[in-house]
């Protein structure tokens, strides 16, 4: 049976949610998926349809989600549907929804320095999402996250006192994966705008992450 993916985009246009979907939807089609694209969170209300999917890819920045919409999404992932996304589409969404944040495994807090040059360090060279990829550099926003310690972290970046004077220097997660019930969840802080994915390693991590999350 052919695998299927639903891309849901919307919210703040500054994160270019549609442009990111336009980049990654064809990649999944190239991997043999049937792909549907939606610009409404009401897509999460059709519970039977959601549970038939292999993967949901969310590209929705900030905004709000109703209780019924959130319940549909959370229950679909808990039942085994995969979830994948990047910075603006998944970890900077629905800031008032704690259960949603528990599912994703983190929430964006800020981006000290705004647009900066930074290095992404691969910390798991055996995982299918990051295997064979070298450390690489980005020029974009770099995110300080509140994160769930149960995440399996695959890549990090270093944030020091020169970035946030009141914190201890730390390795901040950039790529992680986790479980929500029976569902797999993949997330990366990469992707302030679609242009960030012109970096080959960043684009490949998202492609592999979507494939890993998919059932």
- What is the strand arrangement across the widest sheet? 2-1-3-4-11-10-9-6-7
- Strand content bin: 25-35%
List the uncertain runs: none
Helical residues, percent: 25-40%
Give the H and E element order: EHEHEHEHHEEEEEEEH
- Major beta sheet, specifics? 9 strands, mixed
What is the CATH top level name?
Alpha Beta
Quickly count the domains.
1
CATH-level-2 architecture = 3-Layer(aba) Sandwich
What oligomeric state do these chains adopt?
A: single chain
CATH homology superfamily name: Class I glutamine amidotransferase (GATase) domain
- How many strand segments? 11
| Rough outline | globular
Structure commentary:
The chain has 215 residues and is α/β, with parallel strands linked by helices. The protein has a single domain (4-213), classed as 3-Layer(aba) Sandwich (Rossmann fold). Helices cover 27% and strands 33% of the residues. It has 6 helices and 11 strands. It has helices at residues 17-30, 47-51, 67-79, 87-91, 98-104, 200-213, and strands at 4-11, 34-38, 55-61, 82-85, 106-110, 115-122, 136-141, 144-147, 152-159, 170-180, 183-188. 45% of the residues are buried. The mean pLDDT is 95.
């Amino acid at each position: 049976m052919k695998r299927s993916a639903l891309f849901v985009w919307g919210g703040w246009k500054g994160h270019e949610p549609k442009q990111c979907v336009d980049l990654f939807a064809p990649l999944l089609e190239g991997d043999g998926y049937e792909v549907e694209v939606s610009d409404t969170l009401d897509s999460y209300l059709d519970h039977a349809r959601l549970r038939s999917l292999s993967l949901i890819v969310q590209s929705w920045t900030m905004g709000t989600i109703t209780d019924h919409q959130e319940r549909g999404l959370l229950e679909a992932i808990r039942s085994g549907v995969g979830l994948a996304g990047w910075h603006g589409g998944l970890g900077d969404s629905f800031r008032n929804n704690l259960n949603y944040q528990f599912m994703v495994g983190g929430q964006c807090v800020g981006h000290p320095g705004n647009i900066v040059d930074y290095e992404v360090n691969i910390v798991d060279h055996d995982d299918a999402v990051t295997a064979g990829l070298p450390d690489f550099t980005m020029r974009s926003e770099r995110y300080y996250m509140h994160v769930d310690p149960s995440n399996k972290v695959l890549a990090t970046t270093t944030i020091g006192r020169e970035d946030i004077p009141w914190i201890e220097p730390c390795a901040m997660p950039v790529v992680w994966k986790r479980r929500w019930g029976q569902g797999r969840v993949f997330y990366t802080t990469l992707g302030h705008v679609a242009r960030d994915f012109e970096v080959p390693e960043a684009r490949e991590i998202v492609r592999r992450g979507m494939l890993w999350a998919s059932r």
